[in-house]
Amino acid sequence: MAIIEIRNLAKTYGTVKAVDDISLDIEPGEFITLLGPSGSGKTTVLRMIAGFEDPDSGTIHLNGAEITHLPPFDREVNTVFQDYALFPHMTVQDNVEYGLRTRKVPKAERAEQARQAIASVKLEHARERLPHQLSGGQRQRIALARTLVLRPKVLLLDEPLGALDRQLREEMQVELKSIQREAGITFVFVTHDQEEAMRMSDRIVIFNEGRVEQVGTPEQVYERPTTKFVAGFLGSANIVSGESAQKLFGHSKTVSIRPERIRLQPSTYTPTPDETALPVVVNEAAFIGANTVYLVDTDHGIALSISKTNTELLGQDNSFVPGDRVLAVWRNSHTVEIPA
Ligand code: ADP
Ligand code: MG
């Protein structure tokens, strides 16, 4: 049975449909991510699950019981917001112990549990500091530790890593994921960062303009996008439709081909029967470290983007320069039809 069941949830602010008829089942123990551009309704859904926002219509059930209009403190969910406030006059250790104290956990026990939670966010050395003696990223990690120490069944996290710099953010992604897995907590995680969502989630819910576009594992939503929006939002995609599809493939369905699935070959290359090969001219070759990105034009004037991983040893590279006439080649199975 789903731990959270959302049915036909809607919320309008003035004339803005922030959340427009969303239904979703969240399974116990899963790491589910609400992913979408800014303003697509992710925070509003999270706030309605937490009880900070009252839906106009629809229902939310937690463990089978309806909680749609219950106040936040009557719901067994905890929330970590991006701007989570710590108690300014309490040390890190005391901030993290606070929730345990209100639950009357004995002193030695709560000190030890807080120590473990602080260690899990890698701030052992800062236990005796006050919040103003910490950086923004450190404060955010303490806010996380303060919630994790309570071992909630469901944890709602709204862009909790947004304030961290890249390296720490990546460390915390791994750390959070392992805390979630070990503790068996259901995480409902909000981010607008595609890579973060792919890296951490069991399933991703893709939001666009207050609606759910697609729900699936990272692999499903990347490999089998069901809408143009999803194909373009996750990674990059060559989306071909209408007249262009007619010219390239002889049909007018919408298809997506990922840049990294296409490779360039000299024009003498003979494609196998399960490959598509199009004569193209190289327009641009951009070296960006791990990859080189080529922009090419087909003879019909259709632009394609191609990403080549730079795995070859220096000096053995088979690269192309603008003006080269070559073949863009990919497996037919990598031409993915997009239903909507
Ligand atoms: P996201 O978290 O995906 O960036 P939000 O859920 O915060 O999106 O916002 C969805 C839409 O609702 C946006 O257009 C936003 O401006 C609007 N919105 C959110 N909260 C309020 C509010 N309290 N008052 C008015 N408009 C709001
Ligand atoms: Mg938001």
Notes on the protein architecture:
This protein is α+β, with helices and mostly antiparallel strands and 340 residues long. The chain folds into two domains: 4-233, Rossmann fold, CATH 3.40.50.300; 239-337, Beta Barrel (OB fold (Dihydrolipoamide Acetyltransferase, E2P)). It has nine helices and 18 strands. It has a six-stranded mixed sheet with strand order 6-7-8-3-9-10, with helices on both faces. A five-stranded antiparallel sheet has the order 13-17-14-15-16, with no helix packed on it. α2 (92-102) packs across α3 (107-120), α2 (92-102) packs parallel to α4 (136-148) and α3 (107-120) crosses α4 (136-148). The chain is elongated. The mean pLDDT is 93. The site of adenosine-5'-diphosphate has 11 residues, from β2 and α1. Magnesium ion (MG) binds at residues 42-43.
